[in-house]
């Protein structure tokens, strides 16, 4: 079973990812992971150029840390099996940057004083990709690496046509799909996932009111109660087909033993979904 790591604590997540990176790549840059986390924390804290601190309450720093931890664990599990194409040090590093920056599209500029960054929900993947390139290019990353980060971020879009993403290699595609998997599982496995669903609804509602883009039909709810009532169907009819089909069952690399042993992320999600089913089992539709 996976050790519990407090995703409210950036240092705890950073230490765990550092440990995974060092185990996979003993000859790697020992400071890369800490630099990457430092860059992300800088952005979320409002210490980058004219951007404000993150002000979304669901898609916050912890949400990013949940996905980051899950991604590192998927990549570690896959690497341990010897799956091809073999994960490279650069592949891990670019995947880490992509997950750390995948929701920077929620950040607002200083002059943006209307509402929260939740209003950008329908377009946040595109904004995140632009932000990531804007931030990373001055750090000396070549165009190919920047494109890879942007491609991986695109994998988190609900309605993204994955076939249309111009991946440069099969490994880049695999890491991108692992990122998309981790983005879904990391949040849904959280111990407070059920309690935070009303906060998620508030973000969707603000996005709908803002008129900035159009929310996917998947996220069209009239109330927090409706969102919570329909979340089991979201797991059954969207997430499971997505992670089993489009994302190539990469989540099974979290299973111990691989591939059919207990999967702690799936177990925690099913416990959350079970709570929701129980809450609404006798409630009127």
Report on this model:
The structure is a single chain. The chain contains ten helices and no strands. With 285 residues, the chain is mostly helical. The protein has one domain: 3'5'-cyclic nucleotide phosphodiesterase, catalytic domain (Catalytic domain of cyclic nucleotide phosphodiesterase 4b2b), CATH 1.10.1300. The radius of gyration is 18 Å and the shape is globular.
How do the SSEs run, as a string of H and E?
HHHHHHHHHH
CATH C-level label: Mainly Alpha
| Termini separation | 38 Å
From the alpha carbons, calculate the radius of gyration and give it in angstroms: 18 Å
Average pLDDT rating: 96
Structural class: mainly alpha
CATH domain fold name: Catalytic domain of cyclic nucleotide phosphodiesterase 4b2b
The DSSP helix count reads: 10
Helix content: 55-70%
Shape: globular
Low-confidence stretches: none
Largest sheet: none
| Assigned CATH architecture | Orthogonal Bundle
Beta-strand portion reads: under 5%
Count of beta strands? 0
Query: By CATH's scheme, which homologous superfamily applies?
Result: 3'5'-cyclic nucleotide phosphodiesterase, catalytic domain
Number of domains: 1
